[in-house]
Design brief:
Oligomer: single chain
Low-confidence stretches: none
Shape: globular
Number of strands: 0
CATH architecture: Up-down Bundle
Mean pLDDT: 89
CATH topology: Na+/H+ antiporter like fold
Structural class: mainly alpha
Radius of gyration: 21 Å
Number of domains: 1
Helix content: over 70%
Strand content: under 5%
């Protein structure tokens, strides 16, 4: 057995153990598993222990990085949808819709302008930066999301952060595609772009999600044959079907795959609310997500320690800090004025705009499609933003959420 394979197997075993043990060790502490694994990865990247010939620079492996990030997002979106218990209504989802309609596009515009004006990025690269850094992340935000199906239905903070993260990755895709179009085409037909890449893609994503979710819900809970009805078995693998099938079909018909996954999961949840099978799906999905987060954050940390931030400029650090500490809290707070959340809860929702795997996905996706200028700067700012979010939100999430929930401030006004 080769040395590289032995090292990979050993690392896989250690990471699996960490995924199992860390959540229990860190419970009720101002630390998060992503933060611990990021620090561990950075330390490993700084040490001269990498196997000979191993190259962990994500800039050299765009397709692999994109696919790995894609897998994590699909699992997290399916999980988020299954935990969304409220019936779809304007009042119940108003905070989420405000964040999607106001905070997301304004954040993209603000960061894009800053990237163009302060960092000297070309307009297309600046737009890509804004689109990559603005969506909140469903993968790394488990500490502030609804913990399980049927839990925290009246928790405005957790419900809003869960559903926002489930939807805004899909909502950011048209902006990423617009950045790609600016690079590839000198004169973009924006009317055609809005019709085909925004309206049609959104419509197809919702349609595919409803159809797939309805069929999967029928297979799980209503099909007459016991041997086919999935809820008869204590098998959580069906969550992979919820994550993969709607995405594949939506992408095949040129719809928004991420949107289809979340809608499908919500549809499955609505098809049968009280069945214990939802808990089985959640538990299996949570285990997969924990293992994924350990691998992803350790990998990002190793890349940072191994030189991903080489050549970093002060302006790039400031943009990353601005995205996490200024743009999201300010625009989130403005969007939630008049929303059902009480003022402290609205402030918490605005503050917990976790950045993570979604940003890495969109960056690798766009750079794999077109030749953007300033790619090294884009990677540095994105890595710094994710790092800042993991540190700030990882330390603050536990104490703030506990404070809100002890005082009952988390409930809608």
């Amino acid at each position: 057995m080769g040395t590289m394979l032995i090292a990979v197997l050993g690392a896989a075993g250690v990471l699996a153990l960490l995924a199992a043990v860390l959540p229990r060790i860190l419970k009720n502490r101002p630390l998060s598993m992503p933060l611990v694994m990021l620090v561990v990865g950075i330390i490993l990247g700084l040490l001269p222990i990498m196997p000979h010939g191993a190259d962990v620079d994500p800039r050299l492996h765009l397709d692999a990085v994109q696919r790995f990030a894609e897998f994590g997002l699909l699992l997290a979106l399916a999980s988020a949808g299954l935990k969304s218990d409220r019936v779809l209504s304007w009042r119940g989802w108003r905070s989420t819709m405000r964040l999607l309609a106001i905070t997301l596009p304004l954040s993209i515009a603000m960061i894009a302008v800053l990237g163009w004006w302060a960092a000297g990025l070309a307009p297309a690269a600046a737009l890509l930066l804004g689109a990559a850094l603005s969506p909140t992340d469903p993968v790394l935000a488990s500490d502030v999301q609804v913990p399980a199906p049927g839990a925290s239905k009246d928790n405005e903070v957790r419900f809003t952060l869960t559903t926002e993260a489930g939807l805004n990755d899909a909502c950011a895709m048209p902006f990423v595609l617009a950045a790609v179009a600016l690079v590839e085409t000198p004169a973009v037909d924006w009317g055609r772009f809005v019709l085909l890449d925004v309206v049609v893609r959104i419509g197809l994503g919702v349609l595919v999600g409803v159809i797939c979710g309805g069929l999967l819900g029928w297979l799980m809970f209503r099909v007459s044959h016991d041997q086919v009805r999935l809820s008869e078995y204590s098998d959580g693998l069906a969550i992979v079907a919820i994550a993969a099938l709607p995405y594949a079909l939506a992408e095949f018909v040129h719809g928004l795959g991420f949107l289809a996954v979340f809608v499908a999961a919500v549809t499955v949840r609505y098809s049968e609310r009280s069945h214990g099978y939802h808990q089985i799906l959640h538990q299996f999905g949570e285990q997969l997500e924990r293992l994924y987060v350990v691998i992803a954050l350790a990998g990002l940390g190793v890349a940072i320690g191994d030189g991903l931030l080489t050549g970093v400029r002060l302006v790039e650090v400031l943009i990353a800090g601005f995205a996490v500490l200024v743009a999201r809290p300010l625009l989130g707070w403005l969007a939630l004025l008049g929303a059902p959340a009480k003022k402290p809860a609205a402030a918490a929702i605005a503050f917990f705009g976790v950045r993570g795997i979604g940003s890495i996905y969109y960056l690798s996706f766009a750079l794999g499609m077109a030749s953007f200028s300033g790619q090294d700067s884009l990677w540095r700012i994105t890595a710094l933003t994710v790092t800042a979010s993991v540190v700030v939100h990882g330390v603050a999430s536990g104490p703030i959420m506990q404070w809100l929930e002890r005082r009952g401030i988390h409930r809608p006004a």
